[in-house]
Amino acid sequence: MKILRYVIGIGFIIGGALHFARPKPYLAMMPPWIPLHREAVAVSGIAEIAGGAALLSDRTARSGGRWLIALLVAVFPANVHMAVNPDQIRGLEETGIPNWALWARLPLQPLAIWLTWLATRPVPDSDR
Questions:
Q1: Which of 15, 29, 118, 123 is the most buried (most CB within 10 A)?
Q2: Whether pLDDT at 85 is above 90
Q3: Longest CA–CA separation in the chain, Å
Q4: Quick one: pLDDT at residue 125?
Q5: C-alpha separations of 100 from 103, 104, 106 in Å
Q6: What is the distance between the alpha carbons of residues 95 and 12, in angstroms, rounded to a whole number?
Q7: Against a cut of 0.90, is the pTM above it?
Q8: How far apart are CA 123 and CA 108, in angstroms?
């Protein structure tokens, strides 16, 4: 599971860095009921980077996994809002993200939660 943990960790680090390198798609995804869009994008990017980095160390992987699972749960309502109300997301059409992709990503979130849990759960000594 260590390889899966590293892949997930690096994926979150890259995803978090993209919040800063290419913020436009993330800003477009922000539901209108969330205040301070730029700040929220920055905070979520930092949260992804921190959680991803935590997965790269045996010492912090378990808490990093919990952190990332909480983050994925926290952003899920915004993803549902985006799929249900794409017309309310400012600039979404400019990002080129098709509406079907907004729906397709919803089942990916529970999958990401499960994979993160799987990669960071405690493993009994007999299973190592």
A1: 29
A2: no
A3: 52
A4: 59
A5: 5, 6, 10
A6: 21
A7: no
A8: 25
- Taking only the tens place, the pLDDT of each residue in 65-81 is 999 999 999 999 888 98
Contacts for 52 with CB less than 8 Å, ≥ 6 apart: 8, 9, 10, 11, 12, 13, 14, 15, 16, 64, 68
Rounded to whole angstroms, the Cα distance separating 102 from 87 reads 12
The 10s digit of each residue's pLDDT in 112-123 is: 999 999 999 987
Nearest CA-CA partner of 12 in 59, 44, 41: 44
Identify the residue whose tokens are 């493993």: 123
CA 102, CA 79: separation in Å to the nearest integer? 7
